[in-house]
Amino acid sequence: MVGNLRWNFIVGAASFIFTFFLSFSDNVWQTTLLRSFYSFVILFILTFIFRFIINLVSAMGAAPAVDPTEQPGEPLDENKVGQHLDLSTPDEAAIPTTDSTAREEDGFAPLAPPKLVTRKQPDTEQSVRALRQMSEE
């Protein structure tokens, strides 16, 4: 990381003091200390994240350039191991087919869920009788 944790503590302490003095006149001291502590923690973490992003950006700018004389099929030197990413896909002939033949032997069976059946609608006469009976009670 760029620098050390001292920057996190400096920014956190500055936010603690700033929050403490701004809220001391309007709040009780417990509330002031609690809000100042929250301010310290939030800015401490945000400073850590900001420093991490700065470190990533600076590391990307300092990355070594790709050697144009290097061929894709050549073995890598030991000092370049982990710095090369091969994005080419292998030929289909080179892929073993033991797994695919096992799937073909099992056969394919599509999913056959049971059909949904609608319920029979009750007779209107039964509904009217039930409604009259309930209204009489």
Description:
The protein has helices at residues 6-23, 29-61, 98-106, 124-136. The protein is mainly α. Helix 1 (6-23) runs antiparallel to helix 2 (29-61). It contains four helices and no strands. The chain has a domain at 6-61. The chain is 53% helix and 0% strand.
Uncertain stretches = none
Number of strands: 0
**Structural class of the secondary elements?**
mainly alpha
The biggest sheet, with number of strands, parallel, antiparallel or mixed sense and barrel status, is:
none
CA-CA gap between termini: 80 Å
Proportion in helices: 40-55%
- CA radius of gyration is 36 Å
Basic shape: flat
Give the overall pLDDT as a whole number: 78
Topology pattern, helix = H, strand = E: HHHH
Strand content: under 5%
Task: Please give the oligomerization state of what you see.
Answer: single chain
- How many DSSP helices? 4
